[in-house]
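As a warm-up, study this chain.
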Amino acid sequence: MRYLFEDYTLDTDRRELRRGADVVPTTPQVFDVLDYLIRQRERVVTKDDLISAVWNGRIVSDAALTTRLNAVRAAIGDDGERQHLIKTLPRKGFRFVGVVHEDQSAATASAGSVVQNDNTAHRPFSPPHLSIVVLPFTNLSGDPEQDWFADGVTESLTTDLSRIKGSFVIGRHTAFTYKGKAVDLKQIGRDLNVGYVLEGSVRRGENRLRVNVQLVDAETGTHLWTDRFDKPAADLFEMQDEVTARIAIALNAPLIEAEARRGERSLHPDALDLYFQGRHSLSKGLAPKHIALARRFFEQALALDPERIEALVGIANIEIAGVANFMVDDRGSRLAQAEATLIKVLSMAPHHAVAHLTLAALQLFTKRATLAIRECEQALELDRNLADAHAWLGFVKVFIGRGAESEAHIQQAFRLSPRDIKAFHWMHKLGVVKLILGEDTEAVEWLRRSLEANRNFPIAHFQFAAALALVGLVEEARAAALAGFALDPGFTVRRTKGLSLSSDPIFRAGSKRIREGMLMAGIPEE
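Now compare it with the structure written out below.
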């Protein structure tokens, strides 16, 4: 569909705004706001209408909405004074008042070319970021009564995936219209304008339940991720919750990676493209090169969209990680900047679970461990699938003399997401807890497992070296230290001093032993 007004053309198939022959650059949200206002031009559109349609009901500040509307007006040569095309009606809303002509010929031609080319490719395909449909899972049990379980998994997954920030998930009622039908996944992608299709099957036999699931790129038909969950069939309701939670968590990483790859291919990446590339860079590890690249992507995203919440949280995470992993000397200024950023984020999105968890990390490293525990718990109330919050909750407890409770919380993260891309962080946290508690042999094993999962983590190498030295494996400890220096050549034991985070005697004694182990491993003090 093309909408023509004055000398502008809004092409919804190509997702382009043109003035004459020239393309007018617009971000996806600005395009969507304009598209919605034109489609609804026969009525006044309220703020709630816009938020529901464009932001999928997420919390959006008045300032963010005003920024997008101003950008729309600027793109079409209007402004708040003239209001020639978009009128603001005080205490009521907004209305597009320009004269619009609809042209369906382009859409008809595209549809015809699709039929002639096996339903595939010349029609423009530009789905929203992280857009996905969960197709009804197939019941392979041979028992029609088991349909309810397959349907329950489908519905729960639809709900859980919608909790991923920035995602657009097709509602279950639409998805269920495909139940029992032979489907072309590429065509579904085009019909629903989604980038990804999740499909799966359920088979229950005797006392076991097997769930197979796969994520497909709707544009290319490529299988991006597949997994199988095979468990004893005990309480089916409990199992349904566990299986859907695990799938939803496991999907996060391949979705982020796929979106990052799309962003890399884009000639004009938008703020979300850049955010996903930054997030993907951080997932590779906390080596300085990955952190620097992630920061660059997040800053570029914010240059395009200063209120992009995910990128703001990403920047705050980087500042905190630099302090937490002893990579920087200017700790106070880094933490102060991170706190200011998080206060801004939570004023705009008070129910953002990851922002609350990031605030917990900040509070831990600013000597407010008790508040950090509350923030971890708040994050879990907002997102029950946030496995990382369980790991942080366990880690914080060793700072307040409750280290005996730490392992149970961290193990809960593994139960929720046994193959999580962040698992190396959790193993590292548990290794540090064991070192602080004086359980050096166990610390060696957990830190070794963390580094086997991801070697791009400098502080883990140095703490592993300390643990090895403390159990008498000095030569191996020196080799571990050298691996750390390859990633962070400037590291010294001095960096770990002066960050007194706890007055608990066990914590303080454990921290002192870690420094002693580092010195034994040949890590310089200055």
